[in-house]
Write a structure and sequence with these properties.
single chain; about 180 residues; alpha+beta; seven-stranded mixed beta sheet; 3 helices; about 25% helix
């Protein structure tokens, strides 16, 4: 038997996502309150320039530190997945890609949100900057894909979406050369 939702309340509505609380009856009959973030989805992009990947060093308020991560962003309401990836790549790296490959989807935090994230490889990059979001502090830093793969495996690349996307990219590219 699974838990049953008794009611839900919208607690907060932001521009991109909302926070709901659910009163849930557990299988043992106990009522518990659970929070869920409703999210329109997002993308993470692996921008390839030869054997290098354009990574971002970006400040994250939730951690109160700068972290290393891939370009990523939230879809606008009804926005196509690829269009979102193309926009985010230009905003965050200053490049556009001539060639794209979808590496699938993932749930970044299923215990907290219904968000689905699409993973794309962006190839054949050309300069084409878009104005960045006003609240982002971003430094673009190129890394060798082989170095990032090691970092994903040894845990020094701690951003989960980036680690998964790097490992999927390395696997995909290895299979292309076989």
């Amino acid at each position: 038997m699974r838990a049953r939702i008794k009611n839900k309340i919208l607690k907060w509505q932001g521009e991109a996502w909302s926070l709901l609380t659910y009163a849930v009856e557990a299988p043992n009959g106990r009522i518990v309150e659970k929070g869920v973030i409703q999210h329109p989805g997002s993308v993470v992009i692996v921008p390839l320039m030869g054997d290098k990947v354009l990574m971002l060093r970006q400040y994250r308020l939730s951690l109160d530190k700068h972290i290393l991560e891939l370009p990523a962003g939230t879809r606008e309401q009804g926005e196509d997945w690829l269009a979102c990836a193309q926009r985010e790549t230009r905003e965050e790296t200053g490049f556009r890609a001539e060639k794209w490959h979808l590496l699938g989807h993932l749930w970044p935090a299923p215990g907290l949100t219904d968000e689905t994230m699409a993973i794309y490889i962006a190839m054949e990059l050309k300069p084409a900057p878009l104005k960045a979001d006003f609240d982002e502090e971003i430094e673009v830093v190129p890394y060798l894909l082989s170095e990032l793969t090691e970092m994903a495996l040894d845990g020094s690349l701690q951003d989960a979406k980036s680690a998964v996307a790097i490992l999927r990219t390395a696997d995909y590219l290895q299979k292309q050369t076989i």
